[in-house]
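User: ok so my PI wants both of these folded by tonight, can you help

Assistant: No problem, let's get them done. Here's the first:
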Amino acid sequence: MVSTIVSSPTRWLHFLEEYYQKEIDELLVEYPKKKSLWIRYCDVEFFDTELAEELLDSPDDSLENAKQALKEFHYGEISLDDAHLRIVGLPKLRSFMVRDLRSEHINKLVAVEGLVRKATEVRPKVTKALFRCTKCGHEFFVEQEGNELKEPEKCRNEECDGKRFIFLPKGSKFTNAQKLRIQEAPEELRGGEQPQTIDVELEDDLAGIVNPGDRIVIVGILRIRPRGSQQRRSIFYDLALEGVSIEVREQEFEELEMSEEDIQQIKELAKNPDIDKMIVGSIAPSIYGYDDIKEAIALQLFSGIPKHLPDGTYIRGDIHILLVGDPGIAKSQLLRYVKQLAPRGIYTSGKSTTSAGLTATAVKDEFGDGRWTLEAGALVMADKGIAAVDELDKMDAEDRSALHEAMEQQTISVAKAGILATLKSRCALLGAANPKFGRFDPYSPVAEQINMPPALLSRFDLIFVMQDYPDVEKDSKLSSHILTSHYAGELIERSKIDPSVRENLEGVLDIIKPEIPPELLRKYIAYSRRTIFPVMEKEAIELLKEFYVGLRAEGRDEGAPIPVTARQLEALVRIAEASARMRLSDKITVEDARRTIKIVERSLNQVAKDPETGRLDVDILTVGQSKTQRDRVKIVIDIIKELTSEGGMASEKDISAEAQKHGIDEDRVKEILRKLREEGMIYMPTYGNYRLAT
């Protein structure tokens, strides 16, 4: 049944005058730089329910009438001839997942939420094509629809019967156009469902405002597109969306919209002397303990300051954190919580992730008109957000190597299918890994226990070890916390079918309720990252310098290991900047420097301390071996060289005997010999006898 047209330009004119006169006046001032008037559906519904219903069921006629009404507004000689009405905030009954769109929704106004998977470049599209008749020379315009140039059948000059025409691009009218492919959000899917996609066609000022990775709600008119060629047309059609408006749901921190009330609330919150503790308490409150790690994650969310130096050097501000620990201690839960808290947060897990999935891949399909296009991976889609990568140690070595450039230079270079491109991946990386042998061994170096190359380990600003060991007091508090959390969850689920249970929720929810609501915390972080660019006080500079130089001094003694490198100094600066931002302070004070030193010291003591000597040795991270181990290896190689100097072979028994004179016991000699064989530095001609590889 075709709905009766109830709207008219006059009716829309009355609505716009009553509800949007101020916005139209502002649009007239900024026109044509700004070309859209954004209309809330609820306002149309409040003004006239019939007009609102017609907008949903007959959007083509209704929007055309509204556009005619908009042309009635003038400011001097300026009129809104090419302005658009952008409808936002459709009711829930008209908001769909891609899989829920049906034939009855064709040519109706609908809202679809999803993740931008691909976006073509913005290109001009002809809307009014100018043609010249080859017989009489008469020129005339032809309105264009669809994706193919529509030519006239005969000349518009009544005195001419010409049927051949020349298209004149110079006099034709063009508009900007872009295609998006949006995909259903992963969290909305059930079980083994594949996320479905739909293509979106955008024109004019809607083109070019979103990027791959953005979560959007797009309001548009559902259209059908024929499958197959002109010669063999299928009876099945594809769905496409003709965009009317776009709202970005999950922007990067710096783009989150905030009202004056929000800003006032944020400033009041920052005055609290315990704001840092409140923020730490608002990160994954359902997970008991790990205050040090939560503090580090809070600092990661606030980030240091990215710097572009006069010589063109770029210094990253993002803080990278790695969590290493025993199974079953909530590493993955922490990652998932941070992913939800951070706009543009991407979560991925090791074994199921390839280098193409992390970085970018070149694909060829009809979406880009048969050309090769780049499809962004997780690190690109997390640009200006956080990438949470679980099970880092389970990734294949060649896939994991893609992280090196992304972590330090924060770019991803692609050379595939004739495409040479450098994509931005300005994201913080929060990684999690399990020890090689299941549980962490406090008496072995971290680099030996994680299946990751030292070059990658050294790029993390902070590495924390999470150990699970029995402790009566801690276990008692932990069990109470977990059981109470589960009890609160049970009450919440029960209250959905039995409202009377809600009375028991008071007080129980406190244990899992964040001190600062997630939405407010997100805005607090966004405000800080947008407006706070702290500068170090001289006292803070001196304290960080004293700490760094003091650590380096430990390596001056002959034979002593190098405790830290300049890379750790840069990490100190980033963390100190984040600490000041957490307080919304324009100055990095001595207190910020002290907090930074405390966190970095704790991290270094866990992962860069030689378990044999008790001294800090950064080589454990950067090389994979402590200086003590390297010295032992050199001694064993020298012993083999000496024993084989006159030809022959060096027996394991003789090597052990000589090594014991240098304080190396038999078990360590066996371990060193095994590693040297694996690296191809020695070989075993006969069992138990060794020679150096030449």
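One down. Here's the second:
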Amino acid sequence: MKGSIVISLSIRLVAACITALSLQGCATAMIPANDVTLAIVNARVWTGNPRQPWATAVAVSGDRIALVGSSAEISKLVKNRPAVRIIDAAGGMVTPGFIDSHVHFIDGGFRLASVQLREAKTPAEFVARIKAYAATVPAGTWITGGDWDHQQWGGELPRRDWIDSVTPNNPVWVSRLDGHMALANSQALAAAKVTRSTKDVEGGTIVRDAGGEPTGVLKDNAQSYVNAVEPPPSPAMNDRALDAAMKYVAARGVTSVHNMGSFGDLATFERAQKDGRLIARIYAVTPIAQWERLRDTVANRGRGDEWIRIGGLKGFVDGSLGSHTAAMLAPFTDTPADSGFFVETADNLYRWTSEADQVGLQVVVHAIGDRAIRTQLDIFERVARENGPRDRRFRIEHAQHPDAADIPRFGALGVIPSMQPYHAIDDGRWAEKVIGPERARHTYAFRSLLDTGARLVLGSDWFVAPPAPLEGIFAAVTRRTLDGRNPAGWVPEQKITVEEALRGYTINAAFASFDDDIKGSIERGKLADLVLIDRDLTRMAPETIAGATIRMTIVGGRVVYEPGMR
């Protein structure tokens, strides 16, 4: 009898709420005030939830979102509750925590402390920066990182003779900003035993001078010669790099990342979780050639938790446009005898994709050139047909230069284009010189891909580009190149809206890691991963978006960044 009365009262309560068209008010009444730990009021809350797109306040209970509603009702709920932290957004914008869907997280952390070459605008400055950095490290220390861009000084590749005299005591192994080629000095080449008689490897090139001597630049798979002799960092060094990376991205509003790395990276993440140091959630993607190891790991330990998830495998089809190693259907415009190459065979990619898919793992493949993209789309289509229907969420990383005929296939096949908008405004300075104006019309085809029904996912590719979603949103919305020469946007027909870009960094990115049920939107019961921005991005002139700032980053209900925080 007592149970019947309770049920009857519950039914009448719900009926009253429906009659009053105030389901959110019902939710408020059902939340004990002493369960709320944090509240944000007076905000423009973009929820990413189409059923409730906007609100003005959010209440958090522990690590979960407790209520999304009005400032009036949430302020009333937490009134006279001194234990609740109340954040007055003062009209600022709250969004779901940003998810960077493509990073090299440990490498990014190391880059924060390495020689900085990205902004070197002349060969002389390039050399001077390496010389200055070499003076700060002990003899014998490897100088790595760098992220140089030879397009800054017209396109001439650097050479080892530029830097040998300023680094007599240190091996040097510094990467181009895309990671697809690197420069070694003579010490590093000697350690790797790379000489004029060393043969190129499949999927890689040793750049040589007119006399056949290595210049020091090694492309794609040829980098393995030096990588094999570079001393590995210690676990303690990896831990410091991770801590630096997490702090760096938190200041930019990033609460989750999809790490394209190794099983060694996974071990570093797990140490941080065990020690209670994690302030970013991580989808740890491992190499596709090791799919059996991931299969066994998942079988033994599951796919992880809300902090560290596994289940994704990363493969490569080709290199990059800037290194002329992207696999193209037709030759490069500026080097008519060259059309790039595959860094892995199509047969291996098909076999690994099929076998991994059969055991329920997600396949994530780097493809930049139009020939590479077509090849991987063909593989995905074949595997899906042969293995039968399931929720597989295949991804193509970068997807930068698709042939026009292949763009509709993303939507038709349900393949996720995982792209990096900053690359568009960076590469747009010189890409037409490499691929010509006709192919450039459908490069970084954000708008066209969305129009096919594809679920566009956005990220940075850090260390290659800044892990700053606000800069990425600016790039996707304006397409203004970094040199200022395209104020109306490079290939402006491929611009997208602010809300489309926000979805790429939130709910779509969560979908791409099978996490959209727990994060990516501001909804009751989801993880309280939130970002407070100083102004509403949807009400700003697009060209001013890059000037917005992050006021606060919250992960699991805990403030992990605000100005002045150590």
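Residues 311-460+469-494 form a domain with the TIM Barrel fold (CATH 3.20.20.140). DSSP finds 20 helices and 25 strands in the chain. Good luck tonight!
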